[in-house]
C-alpha cells in the first residue's frame, strides 16, 4: 500500500496532466489578474527586498563576503543565496492555506486533491525561477560562467522536491490544525536567520557551531549555489546532504499526504 501511495504521488502531474496544466496556468497568471504592473511584479518585489537588505547589511553594517570569494560584492554574494531562498520561503509561507482556500472545491467535486500541493509548489518556483534565471544571465555577462553551472538546474530541482515534500505535509496538517498557519510564518522567519544568506558563515568563530549549520538543508543549497556560481567549484559534502534530504522530504511528504487525504472532506 505504501508503494502504491508513493507511486500515485510521483505520477500525479502525468496521470492528471490536463488538470495539473490548467491549475498551474490559472494560478500563475492569476497572480497578475487586474494588476497594472502585471509581470513587472515578478522582478520589482525581489529587487526592492534585495536593495533593502543590501543597504542595511552592506552599507550600514559594512558586511563583506568571505575572503575566499575574492572581489565579489556583498550584494551579489547575498542575492545568489536570497533568490533561491525566496522561492522556498514564499512557497512554504503559502502552503498552510492551499487546501483551506480550495475547501469548496474539495468538498463538492471528486478530484485528485494531491494536485493542489504540487501546483502550490510549481507556481512559486516557476515565478521566482524566472528572477533567478535573469540573475544568472547577468552573472554570465560578468564572466562567472563555468561548466559546473550544469549542476544548477539539478540543485534547483532538488530544492524544489525538498520544498514540495514540506508543502504536502504542512498543507495536509493545516486542515486539522489551523494554528499551524501562524506557526509556519514564525518558523520561516527564524529559518531565514538561521541560514547564512545575509551574512557569511565565516562570521561564526566556533567550528562546532558552524558544523551545526549542516543540519539545515537550506544552508547546503545556498552554499552550493555560491560555490558553483562564484568560485567554480562544488562541495560534495553539501551535495551528499541535499540529495537524500530532498528525496526523503518529497517521498515521505507525498506518502503522508496520500495517506490522510481521504479525511479532508470530513473536516473541511
Describe the structure.
The chain starts with a helix and ends with a helix. It has 14 helices and no strands. It has helices spanning 2-10, 12-15, 17-30, 41-60, 74-94, 98-101, 103-108, 115-141, 151-176, 180-193, 207-212, 217-231, 236-260, 264-267. It has one domain. Helix 1 (2-10) packs across helix 13 (236-260) and helix 3 packs across helix 8 (115-141). The chain is globular, with a radius of gyration of 19 Å. It has 268 residues and is mostly helical.
Beta percentage is: under 5%
Main sheet properties: none
Mean of residue pLDDT? 88
Shape call: globular
Helix content: over 70%
Helix-strand topology string: HHHHHHHHHHHHHH
Number of strands: 0
For the record, the count of structural domains works out to 1
Q: Which structural class is indicated by helix and strand composition? A: mainly alpha
What's the tally of helices?
A: 14
Mind telling me the C-alpha Rg?
19 Å
The CA-CA distance between the termini, in Å, is 25 Å
Low-confidence stretches: none
Summarize the structure.
It contains 14 helices and no strands.
Amino acid at each position: 500500500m505504501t508503494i502504491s501511495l508513493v507511486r500515485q504521488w510521483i505520477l500525479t502531474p502525468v496521470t492528471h496532466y490536463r488538470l495539473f496544466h490548467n491549475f498551474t496556468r490559472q494560478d500563475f497568471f492569476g497572480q497578475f489578474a487586474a494588476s497594472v504592473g502585471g509581470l513587472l511584479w515578478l522582478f520589482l518585489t525581489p529587487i526592492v527586498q534585495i536593495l533593502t537588505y543590501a543597504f542595511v547589511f552592506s552599507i550600514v553594517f559594512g558586511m563583506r563576503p568571505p575572503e575566499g570569494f575574492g572581489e565579489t560584492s556583498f550584494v551579489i554574494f547575498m542575492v545568489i543565496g536570497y533568490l533561491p531562498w525566496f522561492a522556498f520561503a514564499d512557497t512554504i509561507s503559502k502552503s498552510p492555506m492551499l487546501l483551506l482556500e480550495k475547501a469548496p472545491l474539495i468538498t463538492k467535486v471528486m478530484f485528485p486533491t494531491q494536485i493542489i500541493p504540487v501546483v502550490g509548489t510549481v507556481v512559486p518556483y516557476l515565478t521566482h525561477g524566472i528572477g533567478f534565471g535573469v540573475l544568472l544571465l547577468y552573472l554570465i555577462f560578468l564572466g562567472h560562467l563555468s561548466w559546473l553551472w550544469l549542476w544548477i538546474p539539478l540543485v534547483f530541482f532538488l530544492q524544489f522536491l525538498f520544498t514540495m515534500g514540506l508543502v504536502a505535509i504542512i498543507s495536509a496538517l493545516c486542515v486539522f490544525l489551523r494554528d499551524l498557519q501562524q506557526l509556519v510564518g514564525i518558523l520561516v522567519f527564524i529559518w531565514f536567520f538561521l541560514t547564512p544568506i545575509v551574512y557569511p558563515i565565516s562570521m561564526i568563530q566556533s567550528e562546532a557551531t558552524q558544523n551545526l549549520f549542516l543540519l539545515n538543508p537550506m544552508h547546503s543549497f545556498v552554499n552550493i549555489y555560491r560555490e558553483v556560481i562564484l568560485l567554480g567549484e562544488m562541495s560534495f559534502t553539501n551535495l551528499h546532504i541535499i540529495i537524500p534530504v530532498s528525496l526523503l522530504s518529497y517521498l515521505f511528504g507525498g506518502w503522508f499526504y496520500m495517506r490522510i487525504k481521504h479525511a479532508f472532506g470530513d473536516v473541511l
